[in-house]
Amino acid sequence: MTTDCDILISGGGIAGLTAAAVFGAAGFDVICVDPAPPITARDVDGSDLRTTAFLQPAQELLERCGLWERLAPHAAPLQIMRIVDAGGDLPEPRLIRDFRAADISDKPFGWNLPNWLLRREMLAQIDGLANVTFLPATATTHLTTRESEARVALSDGSLVTAKLLIAADGRGSNIRKQCNIGVKTWRYGQKALAFSVTHPTPHNNVSTEIHRTGGPFTMVPLPDLDGQPRSAIVWMEKGPNIQALLDLDVTAFEAAILERSANLFGPMKLIGRRSVWPIISQLADRLNGQRVALIAEAAHVVPPIGAQGLNMSLADMTCLLDLATNAPADLGSAAMLRKYHSTRWPDLKARVSGIDMLNRVSMATNPAMRDLRRLGLKTLHGVAPIRKLLMKAGLGAT
Ligand SMILES: Cc1cc2nc3c(=O)[nH]c(=O)nc-3n(C[C@H](O)[C@H](O)[C@H](O)COP(=O)(O)OP(=O)(O)OC[C@H]3O[C@@H](n4cnc5c(N)ncnc54)[C@H](O)[C@@H]3O)c2cc1C
Best-predicted range by mean pLDDT among 20-24, 44-48, 383-387? Predict the structure, then answer.
């Protein structure tokens, strides 16, 4: 059986599902496929316990496609980004600097939401769009392209032809490999532990990044749980240290997070599981193939610093959406996809390089390097125009 559509999306992770909602709302006929069953509850095996902080431009895209209305009631606003240097002899703060959203805009920097809940709401949104079909338990297998279309074989034996194939099939993208697009990968020997906690001291909508060694320890606000302040934490460390933290029983683990959080929020209570994520940086050599656009982790991967990963992916989608709606007849044409590559790639390259550098600085074990890091933070924060420029760049301004 062969089905025709405007856009086939390979991958129904958060990026692929968002793309399905975005292009569906714009009136395109969309099919999205993913071999994995979507997990839409928190307390079940395999649920994605990470959270995503959507920055201002990402929120605008979610609003434009109607998704924001569903997400807003569950979102915690981020008004202040607090950077703490705890790189001295003792695990305690020796420099604290705040970056305030109010200095550059009348909106929060962003809004934080749990990933499992994003999947639930995105699937519900897609379900209400007659022109979008989501096929779980189905993978893209073989790709052939010609000037006029992409022809994609699916794992259920069917064939789809599309004017545009969007590859949102993750860092090991099958579509990217079939297009013979190479990647450059940076490895750190580092992993991230993601989990949630309640704590006695309120977070006051402040996102706090604490630097000591091994990588940042980042606490991002979530809405209160049963009247208790709650935060999502990402703790980055060398791989063997993450394994040792995972092996600790809950009491010992809670003692370890209290120390690593420099006791800024009081004793923390772990909620649910701890999950581990490998950390790399990666950038595809190009974002376009014949009738193919790479987006999200199929195109770029960064360590979770400054909430950039998925926000860069939503910027990919905004760019593609603008090109597609400005000239619908050119959907998937070589000219459209060349423009997509030339618009997005320089910004992606700069962000991947910048985050790579920040991660290496945060990993520093040498005391002299840690002192230099503290001085760098103090200096950059102390000059108001630079501070504002950094905040705007973090939000996506180029
Ligand atoms: C600890 C942590 C915290 C993070 N926090 C933030 C944050 O606060 N803000 C932010 O912006 N970003 C954040 N990120 C980054 C963000 O989570 C990722 O960018 C995002 O989850 C990746 O989404 P994706 O859809 O590109 O990839 P994936 O989630 O990997 O999805 C790819 C999908 O493709 C499917 N697939 C694979 N092969 C095929 C095939 N052949 N056919 C069809 N489908 C296929 C897979 O089953 C999968 O569902 C964080 C990352 C980590 C590790």
Answer: 20-24
